[in-house]
Design a protein that fits this description.
ten-stranded mixed beta sheet
């Protein structure tokens, strides 16, 4: 297709060991991006110096203090010129047709605000695992609130207008900023859709699940759940909050004898049950005007 309108945002923090593979996977895209923004999140001097090799093909944004993944992505969002923004972490890898497939998807689905995809998890020992935790097509808010549904941010291509409308990523979260972001998008009635084809490779170093810090992540999950408690209550009542809290305790409780068994036992009694009169904003919309990109696309289709 013609001139690209996709900005790529790569937050970077002391990852010179992996960043080459990440950047090269963007440069190898069949749809070349408009720009690549590497946001240096106050790395060490030697790590920062390593980025100099990319000065000719990337814009490097240096942050004076370390702000974490959410803040670094926001700095990239602020600087991005593209109509679309794609995110990549500094240790993950895109497959060559990632941008092309998703950009075509956006053209074919003008009502879609964010498209994400399945992934290959790859491990140090050479193993690969297919990873997908989302429904085919649209994700509802009620699903985004549950632990079993998830959009991996490095697989996301989103309309810049939408990212800015929801306020980007919440810098209060050093973890779980990804789930929080998707919940806010769904809550505002934006369509988040998934593609089953794996378009990215997510690096899993020597860890079993998606994290090495289960209790720290769990605390962030509890804060995230509390922040969105009104959404949980609207969809599921108090049962929704209790279900999420117990469900999320599975990973950290595996390290403690008996605790995991207790959590699994409790989960049998409290499970998400949608309220009968619940109207999901991702389906019904929050009653706002159609965003300008959609009006434009729909008029193009009918003309």
């Amino acid at each position: 297709s013609g001139r690209s309108d996709v900005s790529v945002v790569i937050p970077y923090y002391n990852r010179e060991k992996y960043v080459d593979e990440a950047v090269q996977s963007v440069l190898a895209q069949t749809l070349r991006p408009l720009e690549i923004l590497i946001v240096n999140d106050c790395s060490s001097e030697s790590s920062r110096a390593y980025l100099d090799r990319y000065q000719n093909c990337c814009k490097i944004i240096d942050l004076p203090v370390n702000v974490g993944l959410a803040g670094a992505r926001n700095a990239g969002i602020d600087a991005a010129r593209g109509e679309f923004i794609a995110f990549l972490d500094d240790d993950d890898v895109w497959l060559p047709r990632k941008l092309e497939v998703q950009r075509e998807y956006m053209d074919d689905h003008p009502e879609c605000a964010i498209v994400h995809s399945a992934a290959w998890l790859f491990f140090q020992d050479g193993r690969q695992e297919y990873f997908k935790q989302f429904p085919l097509g649209e994700m509802w808010l009620a699903q985004a609130l549950m632990n079993g549904y998830w959009a991996i941010i490095p697989s996301v291509l989103a309309r810049s207008e939408v990212i800015r409308a929801v306020g980007g990523f919440d810098v209060n979260f050093r973890e779980c900023e990804d789930r929080d972001f998707i919940i806010r998008c769904c809550a505002q009635g934006y369509r988040v859709e998934g593609i089953e084809e794996p378009l990215i490779r997510v690096r899993r170093q020597d860890q079993e699940g998606l994290t090495k810090r289960p209790w720290r992540i769990y605390r962030a999950d509890l804060r995230m759940c509390w922040k969105h408690r009104a959404l949980y209550r609207n969809a599921y009542g108090m049962r929704g909050i209790v279900s999420f809290v117990i469900e999320k305790a599975q990973a950290p409780s595996r390290q403690i004898r008996y605790l995991n068994g207790i959590m699994l036992f409790l989960l049998r009694f409290v499970q998400y049950r949608q309220k009968a009169r619940y109207r999901d904003p991702a389906i019904y919309g929050p009653g706002q005007m159609k965003p300008s990109w959609m009006v434009q696309r729909l008029s193009e289709k009918t003309s």
